[in-house]
Amino acid sequence: MGREAVVSVPDIGDYKNVEIIEVLVKTGDAVKADDSLIALESDKAAMEVPSPFGGTVKEVKVQLGDRVSQGSPILTLVVEDGDAPTAASEPAPAAAAPPKPEPTAEPPAAATAPPSAPAATPQPAQVATAVAPPPPTTTPPSEGAPPHASPSVRKFARELGADLAQIRGTGIKGRILKEDVQNFIKQRLQQPERTAASGFSLPEPVEIDFSQFGPVDRKPMSRIKKLSAANLHRAWVGIPHVTHQDEADITDLEAFRVSLKQEAERREVKLTLLPFIMKAVIATLKAFPNFNASLAANGEELILKQYYHLGFAVDTPDGLVVPVLRDADRKSVYEIAAELAELGVRARNRKLRNTDLQGGTFTISSLGGIGGTSFTPIVNAPEVSILGVCKAQLKPAYQGGQWVPRLMLPLSLSYDHRVIDGAEAARFAATLAQLLSDLRRVLL
Ligand code: CAO
What we know:
Layout: E1 3-8, E2 18-23, E3 30-31, E4 36-41, E5 45-50, E6 55-60, E7 67-68, E8 73-79, E9 102-103, H1 151-160, H2 178-190, H3 192-198, H4 223-238, E10 241-249, H5 251-259, H6 261-266, H7 274-287, E11 293-295, E12 302-304, E13 310-312, E14 314-316, E15 319-321, E16 324-325, H8 333-348, E17 362-366, E18 385-389, E19 393-399, E20 402-416, H9 422-437
Helix pairs in contact: 7-8, 7-9
């Protein structure tokens, strides 16, 4: 029978409250001494914390985004008698080999696509506009989640301009090794003509010294923004986008929502428009299954999903994230409202779990609480469509021989034109508008 030992953050020098950027193990994993458990990143350095001894992970006590210092518990290991130097629940001493911080002028996830590697065959991103979490260990890099690699390999890749997201790791649990980066670069050098012929090459951005024109400040991009940037860019370049504009008369729906305010207060739920929009979207997706789908990697099949997990864009101080409300079709408007609020709060407090960001089938980006009349949301690949919503406005409508004020909701539906035709998108938007103008039709 094994004993339990708590593994804590060892001596990491002067670093305190360092952010966890990767949790590399999960409950049930067998780890060997010196296997990396978590990766940390401060403003100045990135480092991995190795396990001081081998065992089986019983409980992981940290999650992505947590901040830790020396002595913070990381996990509980069940170790074979004689293997661990500590007694049960007693904090483990510093790991035998304390992590060696490596200076990071730029955090690891920021490896940029090399100019010689244009998006000829863009990989689908699993959560295009969200903070893509570390992938499950079986997820190949082509699914868009950030790849596992040690800080030294990340640094090496950065120096060579190699995009880790495009490299398949051959190390343990798919980790990317230095050799993988070398092989990737070799391959790219051997294929310049094919790449140029099948794709397109963007001109390299020109580095401009703006201080020559006036005073400037430099502000680092947040990690969330950098991850979103890569995914948004990939989706923008790789997907032929079209945005269809429409509007829905939500006069009656808004009156209904307002009439429910007291009931909602009793249930301690803030009932905004979004849960109703979600209900109408699900009914529309059921009528137009191509919108609740992904294009297969071979480009020859559409994968139609039988579940309705709706992503919704949340504006946070650190940037845009897209949590996913799972099985929205099986939830009531009140349940959706409560879950939206809960996910929104966790998104803003950086407490989302990996699973909260994965598996979306269709995304809604609502700017309705802010304003605007229309915009062109970027499809959240590997989804094929996204609905943008702007602020509802009172507009005059000619009805029954007279002008009457109606509350009109602007809808901006972007779609992947490889998958969806313009007429289909127009029908989708018209159906959605019809359902929003008379939500009773959702029941039909
Ligand atoms: N028209 C008019 N009013 C609207 C509206 C619309 N389309 N949508 C929301 N409102 C109202 C709400 O009803 C609420 O009014 P009350 O306070 O009087 O009840 C107010 O605006 C604020 O709503 P909210 O934004 O707090 O809540 P929500 O459920 O509508 O949206 C969330 C939640 C998380 C989507 C939103 O807070 C958010 O972060 N939006 C930004 C998304 C974003 O950044 N998208 C861009 C992505 S591309 O870069």
